[in-house]
């Protein structure tokens, strides 16, 4: 009898579990309020041309300034937002805000925004994106939507419809974290995307093994054969950069080239645009 009782109430009296559940409920409640309280912010990380060293655009990366916890990174709240559906209003805020902020940048710079699976499955995503472009005045060809293979796994036909509705407007689509999902190659041939972003797990071992270099070279060639732009993520060292450049990659992104930051927090450089952004990365020059 006692055992039965304990089993029935296990979930509610096991201290660790109880705390976990409470944390989650509190965090969800706080996340719900975060949008209204203006606690969310976009940081921007440069995407740099491999051949010219010019900053060709930025990726918007969300941050949550929590009143007590300080800065909360996406890994600690995007999964919860996805599970609770909060990602829909948060993701919409990210797209609208990124378009408005990017509309003030030089015309050659684009903005990439991450869209999570649940958000991508909202049937009105293409209309919402069209609205965000219209409101901000940002030309469609300066907006990139980053999706992961997770977006393409379920509802394949709906995903194709959404992709083509986005691209029909002139918006470009990137496949993020390329190589980490399932059946990457079959997705590439059946889904219309413009760009692949080689996951940083492929970039990290560059220079440590010959196989790592071969793999990255093969992914770049595959992308180019399919007419896609290829980006390498997570470039942290000059050695990695030199190897990536040597393999004909189009763009690089990583701490070596620039960390995600507020635009206005970027150091002013003489001769740069009024907003104080350096257009060329000295690290890139140094390695050529
Ligand atoms: P992601 O889209 O693959 O973004 C790249 C992540 O790698 C970012 O982490 C970035 O700060 C980090 N990174 C960039 N360069 C380097 C490097 O050289 N070394 C290392 N170790 N890391 C580097 P972050 O900002 O923590 O974002 C993590 C993920 O959260 C993103 O991965 C993306 O999937 C998601 N995310 C961020 N913002 C949003 C958003 O607005 N909406 C949605 N749905 N997801 C977002
Ligand atoms: Mg991304
Ligand atoms: Mg990525
Ligand atoms: Mg990622």
From TrEMBL:
<feature type="domain" description="EAL">
    <location>
        <begin position="24"/>
        <end position="274"/>
    </location>
</feature>
<feature type="region of interest" description="Disordered">
    <location>
        <begin position="263"/>
        <end position="288"/>
    </location>
</feature>
<feature type="compositionally biased region" description="Basic and acidic residues">
    <location>
        <begin position="276"/>
        <end position="288"/>
    </location>
</feature>
<protein>
    <submittedName>
        <fullName>EAL domain-containing protein</fullName>
    </submittedName>
</protein>
